[in-house]
Amino acid sequence: MCPNGKGSANLSAKPGDKATDVWPSYLALAASGELHRRAEAAWERLRACDLCPRRCGVDRLSGQVGFCRAGAQARVASHNTHRWEEPPISGSRGSGTIFFSYCTGRCLFCQNYPISQLGVGEDVTNERLAQMMLTLQRWGCHNINLVTPTHYVPQFLAALEMAAARGLRIPIVYNTSGYERVETLRLLDGVVDIYLPDAKYADDAIARRLSGFVDYVAHNRAALLEMARQVGVTLQRDAEGIAVRGMVIRHLVLPNGLAGTEEVLRWIAENLSTSAYISLMSQYFPAYRAVGDPELGRSITFDEYDEALDALERLGFENGWRQEIDDME
Ligand code: SF4
């Protein structure tokens, strides 16, 4: 049983001109009671945690922790207005990020390792998490951007129910490494309007060595298909260009071809669509354990990023963003 009380059905969900009759879509689930049922179902999963592909089976409600080290309460490093996401996510007023502590991965090069690996942050109740969402809305953010939320889906759902009952009306962005279980994503069907997943690797051995992910490729691809099923493969925007529904797939180009960029893009082209929005990132720099690493210990070169852009073009992708690189070798 989730600690959230039965949610109020007294929501003033109003019809919108977006992809669904009610927008953000979680308002319809809240009004019908389905959001409460999802929150309860998710909470039960904490008793033998199987939220991510690792399926540790630990009882997080009794104080056990699994691979990710997350406990019964969500742990949050910060909540803030973020202006440097992709333009339709940040818009003119910023995206309301909630940075969750810990991670289901162990990227050697993680730029946020104090948060993801060392657990910097504070434990928060579901009530506090709901307050954070409402605060971000009050600050004018276009959306609630859950950064690395996989291991806290139950806490998020419980908090969302509270926040929706108190007037939350901005959409949810689910910003993830892409290492997801489809069973967990199904709990988010009709809850999340915008998915922001990574497609990090095309090779399981590399994914395991650099990020500690087991069977990343199959899980990532199944997750991308499920996200596309839920919200569509492209990105719908309002009159001001702000994302209202859909997905953006991020791919970080790594040095020495380690991210398998062309293969990742080819799979997306062949199995999702060349209309998918791709955010092709050049911002890699050696952080954390990548410093001094023979393969990872440098930024990418101009030629490496150029090759990635060539692949994007050759495969026929029509939508998305590229980054400048100034610090080329
Ligand atoms: S969310 Fe954490 S505890 Fe649960 S299965 Fe994944 S790594 Fe294990």
Folded structure, characterized:
This protein has helices at residues 26-32, 34-44, 87-90, 113-116, 126-138, 153-165, 182-186, 204-211, 216-231, 261-271, 302-314; strands at residues 74-82, 95-100, 122-124, 144-147, 172-176, 194-197, 235-237, 243-252, 277-281, 319-322. By secondary structure, the protein is an alpha/beta fold. The chain has one domain (26-322): Aldolase class I (TIM Barrel, Alpha-Beta Barrel). Strands 1, 2, 3, 4, 5, 6, 7, 8, 9 and 10 form a ten-stranded mixed sheet that branches. A hairpin with a 5-residue loop joins strand 7 (235-237) and strand 8 (243-252). The longest helix has 16 residues, at 216-231. Residues 1-20 have low confidence and may be disordered. The structure holds iron/sulfur cluster.
